[in-house]
Amino acid sequence: MKESFSLDSAIRKIPDFPKPGILFYDITGILVNPPAFRYCIDRMVELYKNDHLDAIAAIESRGFIFAAPFAERMGIPLILIRKKGKLPGKTYSCKYALEYATAEIEVHQTDVRPGQRILVMDDLIATGGTLNAARNVLEQGGATVTGFFGVVGLPFLSYAAVLGDSVPVKTLIEYHGE
Ligand code: AMP
User: Fold this and answer.
1) Are 113 and 140 in contact (CB under 8 A)?
2) Would the pTM of this model clear 0.85, i.e. be above it?
């Protein structure tokens, strides 16, 4: 597939955001650049078109942006995984550790079906903790996570160790630290 731009150039790198020492990879530059956004969705479809996915599950909130056009193009359900307290129905939930705190994510129980093959995605994979918690809530509903996807991957933060090697982890661009 022809890339008429550099995906890297569409991703702004902002030092010391949201706190000192963090280099923030800002994907809003992709969203305001239609060829870059289209490239991402085209590549995702190319990567997963033969995977027989039953659904895509996406992490609030930047994961939603990439997952929605992908779900529409693939003709599969989009399952929203949200921060605790946002979903009105009965949920499966999972608490997980962040660097200095804990977080909790949830999914509607009625959105997950036993035996479903689900791809889980976010805009960026850092430690892998969020995607791993997402796998947990989907498995509570009897689904199988068949892949993890991030537009951006930061492998130096060791997400491979957290996510394991039983399921493929794919990204469109990787950064290897500053
Ligand atoms: P993790 O659970 O550590 O893989 O963190 C992934 C989540 O945190 C994603 O939702 C990202 O949007 C966000 N995130 C973590 N680190 C960064 C970073 N350096 N730049 C942008 N987003 C990040």
Assistant:
1) no
2) yes
Q: Would you say how long the chain is, in residues?
A: 178
Q: Per-residue pLDDT tens for 100-118?
A: 789 999 999 999 999 999 9
38 in catalytic set = no
- CB of 48 closer than 6 A to ligand 1? no
130 lines ligand 1 (CB under 6 A): yes
Positive or negative, the CA dihedral 37, 41, 43, 44 is positive
**Which residues does residue 119 pair with via DSSP β-bridges, in sequence order?**
56, 147
Nearest CA among 94, 93, 58, 63 for reference residue 78 = 58
Give the Å distance between the CA of 21 and the centre of ligand 1.
Answer: 14
At 32, which amino acid appears?
V
Q: pLDDT by residue (tens digit) across 109-166?
A: 999 999 999 999 999 999 999 999 999 999 999 999 999 999 999 999 999 999 999 9
* Domains of the chain (ranges, CATH numbers): 51-174 (3.40.50.2020)
